[in-house]
């Protein structure tokens, strides 16, 4: 199925291919697989069990998944690297930074976007509030690294302003879309590097991540994790003594966890085939419906968080059979393509009951 065909596929929400979505409000923690993903993983395990799995066939699986990832990020497959974790990609950027370089981060951002820069020990890492990120970019800033959607609060960054400010200052930009791609369109960010792990809103198995790479980043980031899969033809890159590097983003590939990518191919194909405007409207409509029931202001995020220092609201949601989460002293719920108005009412009723 081509990208054009996928893009024109009608979107019915809630999506009936997700068969276990009732009361599941935790896409921001762990997505649940759709039926095609479950079937793909089952087929893969059966073939492996029966001795019919093929390394060469896995290469085809990964390449098709790479194409779907490119569609989700609005780029081409030669601009997409595949790997296992966001922190590995971020670590490559951190390792490539000049000694003493300034890296601008969001105060309270997810550790995978921050920790590799701190671990260097010789970088100047500044943390500022999300709302001030664009204003804090300086001519001395080498990189601005931030999550498009904050994990702890659900806040959505003004990515266009931040990236414009960074471009004016001559700084690189790294955007983590793990909490965005799948519900928030991420095809026109214009960042130098976009990293995403597919196990949340894209509902892929954990262990399948990808990164888009722009021209400047391709020149300035060193592929320190280069291995056999980093060459133009992985099957011709298995042995030294030469260094084999692909011309494009594949040079940053990490040898893929095959079984994870068997499921990821199906999950990314499904996500790339949905109407992004319909998904955005659906998810935000449910999230804001929940906010209205609790007396919270409307927002532009599918993640809803509110203060819950003692965990009483989260406990009430759990007792009602709902799956939610808590982060940084806040209760957190998320609404996605498997949810509907009944989930909104169930969650609101559970919280109201906890409050008497």
From TrEMBL:
Record keywords: Transferase included?
Answer: yes
**Domain Aminotransferase class V positions:** 100-294
UniProt keyword terms in alphabetical order: Aminotransferase, Transferase
A GO molecular function term, named singly, is:
transaminase activity
UniProt name for this protein: Aminotransferase class V-fold PLP-dependent enzyme
Q: Which organism is it from?
A: Agromyces bracchium
The record lists the lineage as: Bacteria, Bacillati, Actinomycetota, Actinomycetes, Micrococcales
């Amino acid at each position: 199925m081509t990208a054009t065909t996928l893009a024109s596929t009608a979107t019915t929400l809630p999506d009936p291919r997700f068969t276990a979505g009732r009361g599941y409000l935790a896409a921001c923690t762990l997505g649940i697989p759709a039926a095609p993903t479950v079937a793909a993983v089952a087929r893969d395990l059966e073939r492996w069990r029966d001795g019919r799995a093929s390394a060469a066939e896995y290469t085809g699986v990964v390449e098709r998944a790479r194409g779907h990832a490119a569609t989700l990020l609005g780029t081409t497959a030669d601009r997409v690297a595949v790997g296992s974790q966001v922190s590995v990609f971020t670590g490559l950027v951190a390792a490539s930074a000049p000694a003493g370089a300034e890296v601008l981060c969001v105060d309270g951002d997810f550790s995978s976007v921050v920790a590799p820069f701190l671990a260097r020990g010789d970088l100047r890492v500044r943390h500022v509030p999300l709302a001030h990120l664009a204003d804090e970019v300086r001519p001395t800033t080498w990189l601005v690294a931030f999550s498009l959607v904050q994990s702890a609060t659900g806040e959505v960054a003004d990515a266009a302003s931040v990236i414009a400010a960074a471009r004016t200052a001559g700084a690189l930009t790294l955007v983590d879309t793990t909490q965005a791609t799948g519900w928030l369109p991420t095809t026109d960010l214009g960042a130098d590097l976009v990293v995403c792990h597919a196990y949340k809103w894209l509902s892929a198995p954990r262990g399948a991540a990808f990164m888009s790479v722009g021209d400047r980043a391709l020149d300035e980031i060193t592929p320190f994790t280069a291995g056999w899969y980093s060459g133009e033809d992985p099957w011709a890159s298995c042995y030294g003594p030469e260094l084999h590097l692909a011309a494009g983003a594949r040079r940053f590939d990490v040898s893929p966890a095959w079984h994870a990518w068997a499921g990821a191919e199906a999950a990314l194909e499904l996500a790339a085939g949905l109407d992004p405007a319909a998904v955005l409207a659906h998810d935000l409509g449910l999230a804001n419906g929940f906010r209205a029931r609790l007396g919270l202001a409307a927002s532009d995020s599918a993640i809803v968080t509110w203060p819950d220092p003692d965990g009483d609201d989260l406990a009430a949601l759990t007792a009602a059979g709902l799956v939610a989460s808590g982060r940084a002293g806040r209760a957190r719920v998320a609404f996605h393509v498997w949810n509907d108005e009944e989930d909104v009412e169930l969650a609101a009723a559970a919280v109201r009951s906890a409050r008497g």
